[in-house]
Amino acid sequence: MSKLYVLYEHAAGFSLFSVKEFEEVSMFLPQVESSVTDIAKFNSIVKLAGFAPFKTAIAALENINAISEGIVPQDLLHFLDDFFAKLKKKKCTLGIADPKLGAAITESVGVQCSHFGVVPEILRGVRFHFAKLVKGFTDKSAGVAQLGLGHSYSRAKVKFNVHRSDNMIIQSIALLDQLDKDVNTFSMRIREWYSYHFPELVKIVPDNYMFAKAAKFIKDRKDLTQDKLEELEQIVMDSAKAQAIIDAGKMSMGMDISIVDLINIELFAERVVKLSEYRKKLSTYLHNKMNMVAPNLQSLIGDQVGARLISHAGSLTNLAKYPASTVQILGAEKALFRALKTRSNTPKYGLIYHSSFIGRAGLKNKGRISRFLANKCSIASRIDCFLEQPTSVFGETLKQQVEDRLKFYESGDVPRKNIEVMKEAIEAANQEVANAPQSDKKKNKKKKRPAEADTNGATNGNGTVSAEAGADNGNAEADGEPKKKKKKKNKNKQAVEA
Q1: Chain centre to alpha carbon of residue 248
Q2: Using CA atoms, how far apart are residues 262 and 241, in angstroms rounded to an integer?
Q3: Is 414 left (phi over 0), alpha (psi -120 to 50) or beta?
Q4: Res. 275: pLDDT tops 70
Q5: Burial of 275 (0-12, 13-18, 19+ CB in 10 A)
Q6: 3-class DSSP state for residue 47?
Q7: Closest to 476 (Cα-Cα) out of 464, 465, 484
Q8: What stretch of H or E contains 429?
Q9: What pLDDT is recorded for position 281?
Q10: DSSP 8-state class, residue 12
Q11: Which of 394, 388, 347 is nearest to 371 (CA)?
Q12: What is the pLDDT of residue 284?
């Protein structure tokens, strides 16, 4: 029968506990659950077999970051190798909390791991009595270690989000959509409310924002005279409309209204006006944020559609990891699963349907242009995610490629090849980096380039754009040459890796 050991990751280090006389069936018994909370009974079941403390707080943070991603850190690997080497060929099972980490340990160390059965109960007891099971520890010292590591881990995660700044875009577009719904609902309410007194105003001023401002200014229609023509003209931006409002006020068929009702209507109209003005400010804020975080995606597909793609994906990094086929139907998941279930046609587009390119395409070309546009969105998001020096050169180039593809569908003009267009974009981006102010260059030199970004990213160590950044991700429609013949291998194609 194999011996059971349990691995517990604490803020102070890694520890292994041997479990004796604890069968899997016994976990269902109430006596076992009571023994987990009782230190005297629990000591007879679990015994400390090995403990590897962290040398520094930085080492603890590195180890916990690796474990959270399901990777076996070097410290844990050495600890497990040394421990299980002493047991030689004895059959052992290692209890683990995270199944991903268990799979990685089995692959690297060769020990069978288990995360179900009796293991969760044992880990619960170890977590509860850890300070008493390890010599030299107290509840206070264990709590201090956990608090310090928890702060460091959380701070690192928050810093990552703030650095990317895409969280601000996600919140902004969500608030913008909510404001649109609220402003429309409130505008409908103010129209119905004020129309009892002045029903003719709705036909003269159909715009919601102008109607609320006009209702706030007019108040009682009986007080509307020719003296207020200039002020009314500034609100509705039209002298003919202002005169029509004054004429309609003199012969309106609306009912009379009390002062209290007018005060309430005026206050509500003021709220609607302020909400509409704040919505405009929020739209400007979103435009500026998109220009900073995802300038290429913004240039290609616009502020709101680009922000919705980032929001639906969860972050710019997640969007960069998606293939073009996923980006194409992002937002149409219900329709996709319904089509798969009923074996009908799958959707051609999701959120990118709101782009102007698909609206301008003919009915038979909508699916083709949506596939091509999703391909370019995927490239733009990857460039924005991994490019150190933000630039909108690639976004404008990709937008021109989509325009050329639309012309090809309409008139048959063959567009330029993708590799030629991207070479020009890379040269323009490098020229932009070279012409950047000296202070910006110094900042870029100080930044350390991660190894992964050198292989997968869009820039080299000196801040210039690499040739891989502009290449397409291998879809047949993405090349400049339209797909007419059978598929041929293109030696010039290079994949964009996120």
Answers
A1: 51
A2: 23
A3: beta
A4: yes
A5: middle
A6: strand
A7: 484
A8: helix 418-434
A9: 95
A10: S
A11: 347
A12: 94
| Helix (H) or strand (E) segment spanning residue 31 | helix 30-37
Q: Residue 489: pLDDT above 50?
A: no
pLDDT confidence of residue 22: 52
| Angle formed at CA 332 by CA 331 and CA 337, multiple of 5 degrees | 135
Q: Whole-angstrom Cα distance, residue 392 to residue 384?
A: 9
Handedness of CA 396, 303, 292, 160 (dihedral sign): negative
pLDDT of residue 463: 43
Query: Model's pTM, two decimal places?
Result: 0.61
pLDDT in tens, 364-413: 889 999 999 999 999 999 999 888 788 889 999 999 999 999 999 888 88
Residue 3: beta bridge partners?
Answer: 92
At 475, list the tokens: 């879809």
Label each residue of 255-319 as H, E or C: CCCCHHHHHHHHHHHHHHHHHHHHHHHHHHHHHHHHHHHCHHHHHHHCHHHHHHHHHHHCCHHHH
The one-letter amino acid at 134:
V
CA atoms of 360 and 339, how far apart (whole Å): 26
Residue by residue, DSSP assigns 202-253 as HHH---HHHHHHHHHHH-SGGG--GGGHHHHHHHHT-HHHHHHHHHHHHT--
Q: Per the structure block, which two tokens stand in for 313? A: 């994906």
437: its two tokens? 């102010």
Q: pLDDT at position 498, please?
A: 34
Are the beta carbons of 494 and 467 closer than 8 angstroms? Answer: yes
Per 3-state DSSP, the chain is made up of helix, strand and coil in percentages (nearest 5) of 65, 5, 25
Instruction: Give the β-pairing of 3-9 and 92-95.
Output: parallel
Angle 380-340-409 from CA coordinates, rounded to 5°: 45
For 224-249, what is each residue's pLDDT tens digit?
888 888 888 999 888 899 999 999 98
Q: How many residues does the chain have?
A: 498
Tracing tokens 């119905």 back to the chain, one arrives at 192
Which residues sit opposite 94 in a β-bridge?
5, 113
pLDDT at 446 over 70: no
Alpha helical stretches, state H, 70-200: 74-86, 99-109, 119-133, 139-164, 166-195
Q: What DSSP string runs through 452-485?
A: HHHHHSSB-TTSPBPHHHHS--S-GGGSSS---S
